[in-house]
Design brief:
12 helices; alpha/beta; binds magnesium ion; globular; magnesium ion binding; Enolase-like, domain 1; 372 residues; seven-stranded parallel beta sheet; 12 strands; O-succinylbenzoate synthase activity; binds 2-succinylbenzoate; three-stranded antiparallel beta sheet; TIM Barrel
């Protein structure tokens, strides 16, 4: 006997396709109105990155095209709500109404914690003039040595004119940072800045008093309930902005204005769909603090768009993204992962609805005063 549920019979469903009807039935507030497809993708990383070897997420299709929702699995629902808001915004509104003050966005090559030889190859192939090197990720005692070796190799490959920045992802306490940073600065032949050397803003403030290397804040902005504290602290020189955790291009743009500091737009290991949103944010910002961290498509083994947002000579063009049916089919998730996202996305929709209701009742509780 045919029932409602028969439409979700896996034999009738396209691989990776979520049951939007079931998601809408749980959602009284109409958050998914205008979304006509939701497809789960899974892609291997070419290099292990911060302990991750695979990325997966959902692509939502709406009136403006595709948007990406891919919070890491260790993110809670409250944080993931911002990623959903970003994906919905991109699928429903795209870049409409945003300023575009540049046609091309300079990007850095991102160097994971790989061997010096592998780092050289990444730099050489990228033809970028700026490298962002991950440091302090390995827990073994050789970590500092290999960071020093890798930075030397990157400088050698970039030449004296190239710029090198490092990202410690909050690995150090201020004392360790103050000891290690001069060594890394020397090995790199000068650092443009260090991204999130310590986890807490108070530690960045303490560090700023004892080192001259400029400091960029990433986690202190995207994971904070008070990201504007970064600007008030006076200890941070560069704001790292990521579209998905900040709840979308418009919200990130408004936050950049409130911060009033030079910014670098970075990816969250997105497909070209997420990268295209980052590129549009970077194209809208009046003051970039150098190359953006959007040259990450090569860290993914596959993509959903043709052509990909692959940097050419260290830059990405500002243009719409075209998702390929064939590529989407080739990265579509199996039934198990699709079911997990079906459940998770339902919870994230509820979390976003709850947060928006709360912000409507009490506008003062919106993060940075900008509604999600
Ligand atoms: O900024 C870049 O060059 C790449 C993006 C990046 O490093 C990143 C990607 C996923 C999750 C966290 C981070 C990070 O900046 O810490
Ligand atoms: Mg970072």
């Amino acid at each position: 006997m045919p029932t409602e549920n028969a439409s979700f019979d896996s034999s009738l469903r396209i691989r990776g396709e979520l049951d939007l009807r079931a998601l809408r039935a749980q959602d009284s507030s109409g958050l998914l109105t205008g979304i006509d497809r939701a497809v789960v993708w899974t892609i291997k990383l070419t290099t292990r990155f911060r302990g991750i070897t695979r990325r997966d997420g959902v692509l939502l299709h709406g009136g403006a095209g595709w948007g990406e929702v891919a919070p890491f699995w260790n993110y809670g629902l409250e944080d993931s709500a911002a990623w959903l808001a970003a994906g919905l915004e991109w699928a429903l509104a795209g870049a409409t109404g945003l300023p575009q003050i540049r046609h091309s966005v300079p990007v850095n090559v991102t160097i994971p914690e790989v061997s010096s030889e592998a780092a050289r190859t990444l730099v050489r192939r990228s033809r970028a003039d700026t490298a962002k090197v991950k440091v302090a990720g390995a827990s073994d005692s050789d970590s500092l040595d290999s960071d020093i070796q890798r930075l030397g190799a990157v400088r050698d490959e970039l030449g004296p004119e190239g710029r090198i920045r490092i990202d410690a992802n909050g690995a150090w306490d201020p004392r360790t940072a103050a000891t290690v940073l001069p060594l890394l600065d020397k090995a790199a032949g000068g650092l443009q800045y260090v991204e999130q050397p310590c986890p807490d803003l108070a530690d960045l403030v303490a560090l700023r008093r004892v080192i001259d290397i400029p400091i960029a804040a990433d986690e202190s902005i995207r994971l904070s309930t008070d990201p504007l504290a970064v600007a008030r602290s006076g200890a941070v020189d560069v704001a790292i902005l990521k579209v998905a955790p900040l709840g979308g291009v418009r919200r990130a743009y408004t936050l950049a204005q409130s911060l009033g500091m030079p910014a670098v737009v970075s990816s969250a290991l997105d497909t070209s769909v997420g990268l295209s949103a980052g590129v549009s944010l970077a194209a809208a910002l009046p003051e970039l603090a150098g190359a953006c961290g959007l040259g990450t498509i090569r860290l993914l083994d596959r993509d959903v768009a043709a052509p990909s947002f692959t940097p050419v000579s260290g830059a990405l063009p500002v243009r719409p993204v075209h998702v390929s049916r064939r590529l989407l089919a080739s990265v579509a998730a199996d039934d198990d992962l699709t079911s997990r996202w079906q459940v998770r996305l339902g919870h994230i929709v509820s979390a976003l609805r709850t947060r928006r209701e709360r912000e409507r009742r009490d506008p003062g509780c919106a993060i940075a005063g900008i509604p999600l």
